[in-house]
């Protein structure tokens, strides 16, 4: 996983998603907006609830993930996508504290 911009993160997939003849090897996770979180509980997302994440990820990914993509997705790829989304939900103050603790 690599940060490409402040508002998105690129996630390289270990197992490409096939759409017809086309293989998707990388997914951009875009920083969620409040409307993208509609109908979801933040606590569920922060606890990595799979059902909540399967609702959110199609709203914040390019190319957009489809429901059936999750059926064949490697668990490690789902975990990377989850990590990217949760990273955007973490308050900036908590990120600063983590950075200071690492130094």
Q: What is the secondary structure topology, with strand pairs?
A:
Elements: E1 2-5, E2 8-19, E3 22-30, H1 42-46, H2 50-56, E4 61-62, H3 67-72, H4 75-89, H5 92-102
Antiparallel strand pairs: 1-2, 2-3, 3-4
Offer a few descriptive terms.
103 residues; alpha+beta; 4-stranded antiparallel sheet; 5 helices; globular
Structure notes:
By secondary structure, the protein is of the alpha+beta class. It is built from 5 helices and 4 strands. Strands 1-2-3-4 form a 4-stranded antiparallel β-sheet, covered by helices on one side. A hairpin with a 2-residue loop joins β2 (8-19) and β3 (22-30). The longest helix is centred in the last third of the chain and has 15 residues, at 75-89. The mean pLDDT is 89.
- Basic shape: globular
Overall average pLDDT = 89
Q: Helices and strands: which structural class?
A: alpha+beta
Number of helices: 5
Regions with pLDDT < 50 over 5+ consecutive residues? none
- Which sheet architecture does the biggest sheet show? 4 strands, antiparallel
Q: Span from first to last CA?
A: 21 Å
Range of helix content: 40-55%
What is the total tally of β strands?
Answer: 4
Order of helices and strands: EEEHHEHHH
Radius of gyration: 14 Å
Report the β-strand fraction as a percent range.
Answer: 25-35%
- Which strand order spans the largest sheet, edge to edge or round the barrel? 1-2-3-4
């Amino acid at each position: 996983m690599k940060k490409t911009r402040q508002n998105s993160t690129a996630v390289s997939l270990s197992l490409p998603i096939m759409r017809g003849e086309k293989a998707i090897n990388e997914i951009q996770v875009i920083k969620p907006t409040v409307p993208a979180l509609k109908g979801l509980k933040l606590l569920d997302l922060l606890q990595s609830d799979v059902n909540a994440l399967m609702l959110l990820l199609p709203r914040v990914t390019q190319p957009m993930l489809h429901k059936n993509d999750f059926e064949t997705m490697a668990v490690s790829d789902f975990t990377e996508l989850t990590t990217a989304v949760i990273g955007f939900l973490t308050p900036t103050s908590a990120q600063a504290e983590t950075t200071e603790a690492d130094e």
